[in-house]
Design goal:
By secondary structure, the protein is mainly α. The chain has 17 helices and eight strands.
Length: about 725
């Protein structure tokens, strides 16, 4: 967004800077050009004056007036000195400059070449080897290069008015030089007693030309120069020169109307005055050009500064507006993220929790005005309303489904509990070994059905009915979990630590271990065994369930461990191609109590499940004590209603039922002779037990007795009805 605003602004700024720079550069260049033209007058005018004097003395000397040698000896050093200054100035200010017109460069080069011929021509003149016409043409050609150069510089001047003013001054220079040329011819003719026809025609042309140029330029002169020109026309030297020219034009070159000295003095005065008029007119044009360049420079500088300031102001306004717009967009983004990450999830959580939510509630809607950004916010509000409405509908559907789900699970659990009670009564009455074995199989299947029902309750977010108040020994707990599996005979339990698990954790830990053991037996060969080991570690107790199956792929293991560490929502089951329901239940149970479950590769190539029970969930075996009988509520009022059984200790009896059939575990020792049944006796639990029956659920909060109150009961003690025959267990 800022880039979109800055690009045209920066472009405008660059254009303003470029325009101002060009105007300033043009003004400075024009001023410098004018100053260089004006500066050329200082060395050039004296050089031209001395060259004209040398030309006049040379022509008189060639005409036979030997007295001019002294004049030449005096004027030639001046010519050389002024020529050196002029040449140096031309090289430094015009020869190497790109703005110098090509015609002017050509004139400068030609002038340098002609000036290099001056020493040899002077020798020829001094030796009388050059004619008057040749010398006249040579000097005129050098001066013509100057005239052409001045004309080229005037044509290339900056500004039409400046060029016009300069062009009007050039005829004055030409007229002044033409007057000097005619005066030199006249002096030579007077010294020679006459001029040749060609020289005379040249003389006539020069006189007529400079008078015509003066008459044409008089109307274009500035008032100050025009006043000097009029003053010159009215002066005595002008009248003297005019009289001599009139006499010479009549063809009488032998007799002067005025004394020769007066004529020569008047001629020099007129030539100097005409050159002064040219310099004054040219200087005025140069000053006007300099003033114009200064004005242009000032205006360009002001315009450039204004353009730059305006561009900077535009950039500032653009950046300010862009930052304001960007700030609003940032606020919209933050509000949107806050709504999407905080407020909307809170609303959805309230919806999922069953709280009433008003879709028109303004606390969670965005308000950013009525412009385009506000319209975007309104569009997000509409999308948010739609999402909340969909979440409400989904929550209602999910709650309804969960209610039906839990209702069916609870009904199934009630039926299974009743079925287990009927089977227990039938087992007590049956004496036939084959029939008793069938009843035990039914008993085991019913136990698995009970666990499946509890799985449904756990997945539905409910609480299973089996609960214990007092701690239960770890060995007893593991045997109870293995007894709930179908192939419990393949399960081999090693010696476990002498430690107990607190009562509120027992039921869920039994269920968790039963699911892991069931997975181990289901995904390993029928002839293989599943080993259960336990050990006390720094953070609690570790229980390992290891099978000898094919194991899992590394990516599957990582995925399952991620699920066990952070159980996902129930909807994950709909997205999985292979829903591992048992592991999902394990993750839910582990997260409920902070138990860590981790899968890794077994040394046998199978899978080892490592269960870490934290220290705060453990208790010493001394805390295992009998409880007061708990009277369960009626079946119609609780999720898992069952009739109470007469037990003296609900922390042990649920995990070990009376054994009334031959043991099917391969590691179980032979049965011992029946023991007296006069009273419950403390015995050591067997390594593996057949299916067991779970006691009725506890609906009131579990309350543990104070540490000073409990009456220690051995972990292996079993309380059974007095009328029930029991099978003695081998002493550890």
């Amino acid at each position: 967004m800022l880039t979109i605003a800055l690009v045209p602004s920066v472009a405008l700024l660059l254009v303003g800077v470029a325009l101002a720079g060009y105007l300033i550069y043009d003004a400075v260049t024009g001023r410098d050009y004018t100053n260089r033209i004006r500066g050329s007058e200082a060395p050039s005018i004296p050089f031209l004056a001395s060259l004209q004097q040398e030309r006049q003395a040379t022509l008189s000397l060639l005409a036979g007036q030997s007295s001019q040698r002294a004049a030449l000896a005096a004027v030639r050093p001046k010519t050389d000195e002024n020529a050196a200054k002029t040449i140096e100035y031309l090289k430094d200010n015009f020869a190497d400059y790109s703005d110098t017109p090509p015609s002017v460069l050509k004139n400068i080069t030609t002038f340098f070449g002609l000036f290099q011929q001056l020493p040899s021509n002077r020798q020829a003149i001094d030796g009388g080897q050059m004619q008057i016409g040749q010398a006249f043409a040579y000097y005129n050609k050098m001066i013509d290069q100057f005239i052409d150069g001045v004309t080229g510089l005037a044509q290339n001047a900056r500004g039409a008015q400046n060029a016009f003013d300069r062009l009007t001054a050039i005829p004055l220079f030409t007229a002044a030089d033409a007057m000097q040329r005619s005066d030199a011819l006249a002096a030579a003719g007077l010294a020679a007693g006459g001029l040749t026809n060609d020289d005379f025609r040249t003389y006539v042309g020069q006189v007529g030309a400079y008078h015509a140029q003066l008459d044409a330029s008089a109307s274009k002169l500035i008032p100050e120069v025009k006043a000097k020109y009029d003053q010159l026309l009215a002066s005595q030297p002008w009248q003297t020169v005019t009289q001599v020219e009139t006499a010479f034009l009549r063809g009488d070159l032998s007799k002067l109307p005025v004394p020769q000295d007066q004529w020569r003095t008047a001629a020099r005065q007129v030539g100097t005055a005409l050159m002064g008029i040219f310099v004054l007119q040219s200087s005025n044009a140069s000053q006007a050009a300099i003033d114009d360049a200064d004005s242009t420079f000032t205006e360009s500088l002001i315009a450039g500064v204004v353009a730059v300031l305006f561009a900077v102001f535009v950039v500032f306004v653009a950046v300010r507006l862009s930052n304001r717009l960007i700030g609003r967009l940032h606020r919209l983004r933050e509000d949107t993220l806050d709504a999407a990450e905080v407020r909307l999830p809170e609303l959805v959580a309230r919806v999922q929790a069953g709280e009433p939510v008003d879709l028109e509630e303004g606390g969670h809607f965005l308000d950013h005005g009525t412009d385009e950004i506000g319209q975007v916010a309104d569009a997000f509000n509409k999308a948010q309303q739609t999402a909340i409405a969909a979440a409400i509908d989904e929550a209602k559907t999910r709650e309804g489904t969960k209610a039906v789900f839990l209702n069916i699970a609870h009904r199934s659990q009630v039926i299974v509990h009743r079925q287990l009670k009927v089977l227990d009564q039938a087992e007590r009455k049956q004496e036939d070994p084959e029939q008793l074995d069938t009843l035990f199989q039914l008993d085991h299947l019913s136990t698995r059905a009970r666990r499946n029902a509890e799985n449904l309750i756990i997945l539905g977010g409910g609480q299973p009915g089996r609960q214990w108040r007092n701690p239960v020994g770890l060995a007893e707990l593991v045997r109870g979990a293995s007894a709930e599996t179908e192939d419990f005979a393949r399960v081999k339990t090693a010696v476990l630590p002498q430690i107990a698990v607190r009562g509120p954790v027992v039921g869920d830990l039994v269920h968790l271990l039963a699911e892991l053991i069931d997975n181990a037996t289901a995904f390993s060969p029928p002839q293989s065994r599943v080993e259960i080991r336990g050990n006390v570690v720094g953070k609690g107790v570790v229980i390992e369930v290891e099978d000898q199956g094919l194991g899992l792929e590394p990516d599957q293991t990582e995925e399952i461990n991620t699920m066990l560490a952070d159980p996902p929502d129930f909807g994950i089951m709909a997205l999985s191609d292979e829903p591992r329901l048992g592991l999902f239940v394990v993750a839910r149970l582990a997260a409920r109590h902070g138990i860590q479950v981790h899968l890794r590769e077994s040394a046998y190539g199978g899978t080892r499940a490592i269960v870490l029970v934290r220290t705060d969930l453990l208790a010493p075996l001394a805390e295992s004590e009998p409880e007061q009988p708990i009277t369960p509520p009626k079946p119609e009022l609780v999720p898992n209603p069952v009739e109470p059984e007469t037990t003296a200790n609900d922390e042990v009896a649920p995990l070990k039922r009376p054994v009334r059939r031959p043991a099917r575990h391969r590691t179980e020792p032979p049965a011992a002779p029946p023991a007296p049944v006069t009273a419950p006796a403390a015995v050591t639990p067997p390594a593996v037990v057949p299916p067991v029956t779970v006691p009725p659920p506890v609906q009131q909060p579990s309350v543990q007795q104070p540490p000073s109150a409990p009456t220690p009961v051995p972990v292996g003690s079993v309380s059974e009805p007095m009328s029930q025959p029991t099978q003695a267990q081998p002493v550890a």
